[in-house]
TrEMBL record:
SUPFAM superfamilies hit by this protein: C-terminal effector domain of the bipartite response regulators (SSF46894), CheY-like (SSF52172)
Origin superkingdom: Bacteria
Signal peptide segment: none
Biological source species: Dactylosporangium darangshiense
Name the record gives this protein: Response regulator transcription factor
Alphabetized CDD domains for the sequence: LuxR_C_like, REC_NarL-like
Annotated ranges, domain Response regulatory: 3-119
InterPro entries in alphabetical order: CheY-like_superfamily, NreC/VraR/RcsB-like_REC, Sig_transdc_resp-reg_C-effctor, Sig_transdc_resp-reg_receiver, Tscrpt_reg_LuxR_C, WalR-like
Amino acid sequence: MIRIVIADDQPLVRSGLRMILEAEPDISVVAEAADGDEAVAVVLAERPDVLLLDVQMPGADGIAALQRIAAADAPTRVLILTTFDLDEYVHRAMRAGASGFLLKDMPGEDIVAAVRQAARGADPLLAPSVTRRLIERFAAAPPKPDTAELDRLTAREVEVLRLIGRGMSNAEIARALFIGETTVKTHVARVLMKLGLRDRVHAAIAAHRAGLA
């Protein structure tokens, strides 16, 4: 069962998301929060798999909450909820450790798919248009990864990282490299471990910063 916390200052948004998510047999919304402080407290108490986190909230905003959750080394994957795909806070959220971004007007099935894939961690995260553009913008910002970090990767792992940076799924990478999808998953997991990356979104950023993508 995927355990979810929803943090948004608008009760109608929270109830709408809860209705969409709890219609799925493998998802449970374990708590809600109306501001950043409450979101941090709930995440540290409940240790959910995924937090849906609004950025614009009264008091402590979503970015402050995300930073505190990351500092506490919580295992929760954080998906940022935005109203507009050019939200000025989203770039800061990526730096703070967000795993992806959802637009509030996305179809319900896309939100469910994003939650499931975020919960799986290393699997492909559903990437709405905003995510791809943000990765490109974030990757353009200094500094680039230490070359020594990439030297830890085998030639095959570098190739897998390059294809992750191009937005390819495990199945697409498997076809491109003529290897099995299970083998791709192993390579992805090793790339994340060796580079100390949280998930696939941040692997894509690393690929762009290193000039691989």
